[in-house]
């Protein structure tokens, strides 16, 4: 019994810190000096540390023009109506985030009917944007999504093309390793049969 208690007390701090950043109770939602960045941070922290405050913090962040706060709100409530409408509206202004959000929604069938072709189209449009907001990381992420979507369709030449881009440009070993696996799988499917 004592050993179990000591083990619990030893592991508890590590478990709590692994859960993510601590909730900062000193930040008040009605503080007139509250910034959009801080509200957005509290929105995301609440997901792990204070789910009962998620809607309040994310609504506050949304009011402060952080529209990505609609993602955790939608996932938390199970209603993506506002998220889909906002992303579609922002797509009209060619905002890069709108392309990634809608592509994710259509690719996963989350809050909309799954439409892989639409997800592919949105990612391709994102890659063709001549917009300062399309960073190299966003570009690489779009190629990663395209490789994944084309793999679902078994379009192996397209998988090779987009996974090769990820392999060359990603900064993350995990993505590079996944891209190498996709390329190897695609190459097996594109080689002529020797039977």
Keywords:
disordered N terminus, mainly alpha, signal, 10 helices, elongated, 195 residues, Sel1 repeat family protein
Describe the 3D structure.
The chain is an all-alpha fold and 195 residues long. The protein folds into three domains: 34-79, no CATH class; 80-130, no CATH class; 135-189. 70% of the residues lie in helices and 0% in strands. It contains ten helices and no strands. It has helices at 2-18, 36-49, 54-63, 70-77, 81-91, 96-108, 116-128, 136-153, 156-169, 173-190. α2 (36-49) runs antiparallel to α3 (54-63). The longest helix has 18 residues, at 136-153. The chain starts with a helix and ends in a 5-residue tail after the last helix.
Can you lay out the helices and strands and say which pair or pack?
Blueprint: H1 2-18, H2 36-49, H3 54-63, H4 70-77, H5 81-91, H6 96-108, H7 116-128, H8 136-153, H9 156-169, H10 173-190
Helix pairs in contact: 2-3, 3-4, 5-6, 6-7, 6-8, 7-8, 8-9, 8-10, 9-10
Organism: Pseudoalteromonas ruthenica
Keywords: Signal
Protein name: Sel1 repeat family protein
């Amino acid at each position: 019994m004592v050993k179990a208690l000591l083990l619990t007390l030893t592991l508890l701090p590590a478990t709590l810190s692994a859960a993510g950043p601590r909730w900062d109770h000193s930040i008040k939602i009605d503080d007139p000096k509250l910034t959009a960045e801080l509200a957005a941070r509290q929105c995301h922290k609440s997901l792990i540390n204070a789910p009962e405050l998620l809607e309040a913090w994310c609504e506050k962040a949304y009011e402060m023009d952080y529209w990505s706060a609609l993602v955790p709100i939608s996932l938390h409530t199970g209603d993506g109506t506002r998220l889909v409408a906002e992303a579609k509206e922002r797509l009209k202004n060619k905002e890069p985030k709108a392309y990634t959000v809608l592509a994710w929604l259509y690719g996963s069938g989350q809050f909309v009917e799954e439409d892989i072709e639409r997800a592919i189209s949105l990612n391709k449009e994102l890659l063709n944007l001549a917009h300062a907001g399309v960073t190299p990381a966003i570009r690489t992420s779009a190629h990663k999504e395209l490789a994944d979507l084309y793999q679902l369709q078994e379009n192996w030449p397209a998988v090779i093309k987009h996974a090769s881009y990820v392999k060359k440009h990603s900064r993350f070993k995990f993505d590079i390793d996944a891209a190498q696996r996709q390329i190897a799988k695609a190459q097996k499917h594109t080689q002529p049969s020797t039977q």
